[in-house]
Amino acid sequence: MAKIGTDIDHAAALLREGKLVGIPTETVYGLAGNAFDERAIMKIFEVKRRPATVPLIAQTSSLGKAKGFVKQFSKEALLLAGKYWPGALTLVMEKSALIPDLMTSGGDTVGIRIPNHAMTLQLLSRLDFPLAVPSANIHGQKSPMTAEEVNEQIGDQIEYILDGGKCAVGFESTIVGFSNGLPVILRQGALSKENIESTINNTIN
Ligand code: AMP
Ligand code: MG
Question: Domain span at residue 72?
């Protein structure tokens, strides 16, 4: 079983070594690895038993860093990020060359989010790379809401789980992509369609 603790420096050190760490977010617990490290990304797919065709979301701690991971933020993307980051919103945009193809299952777009969890924001701000962070469950099983639930599902395959308490939101992030510049909801989640529409002052499909 993995050790459960609150040592952010230890989690950061493991991630710098290319290892995976269970981390809290406000939505659900995540399984984190260095998003610039192809071996770490491959380990995430293995541990989760996730098909290679389902891309991973990248998490980072600031809009400035996020801008480096995509070609450009549209006006709508900036409005949404400005209003809901840190928060339960994942924005899918055209990726820059910094993001490995393995992260996106070969696609041109990457999902990015700044999570709203103090401990994980501290962790992210200490790292000079973004984290690949899918939910910390085995593919097809329930997303974990506590460090103990992460341990039950994947604790035999990782060393450490950062304990940030029970997830405050308890639902996945809402994923928003763009089609011809207009926002499209790719996954319903904690943030409602109405929240998104009122921010961009437009209705969406
Ligand atoms: P999870 O990794 O378990 O939090 O789930 C992430 C979800 O985001 C998966 O269903 C992915 O299919 C979806 N996703 C991640 N990246 C992208 C992307 N670039 N385009 C569309 N969907 C994505
Ligand atoms: Mg999931």
Answer: 3-200
Residues 6+ apart with CB under 8 A from 91: 77, 80, 81, 111, 112, 113, 176, 177
Residue with CA closest to ligand 1 atom 10: 54
160 forms beta bridges with 3, 21
At 159, list the tokens. 């060393």
Q: For the chain, what is the domain count? A: 1
For residue 205, is it within any domain? no
Distance 92 CA to ligand 1 centre (A): 9
Per-residue pLDDT 10s for the chain (205 aa) are: 999 999 999 999 999 999 999 999 999 999 999 999 999 999 999 999 999 999 999 999 999 999 999 999 999 999 999 999 999 999 999 999 999 999 999 999 999 999 999 999 999 999 999 999 999 999 999 999 999 999 999 999 999 999 999 999 999 999 999 998 889 999 999 999 999 989 988 777 7
The answer to whether residue 128 is domain-embedded is yes
Whole-angstrom Cα distance, residue 27 to residue 41? 21
Mutation test residue for ligand 1: of 56, 57, 71, the one with most atoms within 8 Å of CB? 57
Residue 90 has, within 13 A of its CA and on its CB side, a CA count of 27
Beta bridge mates, 34: 131
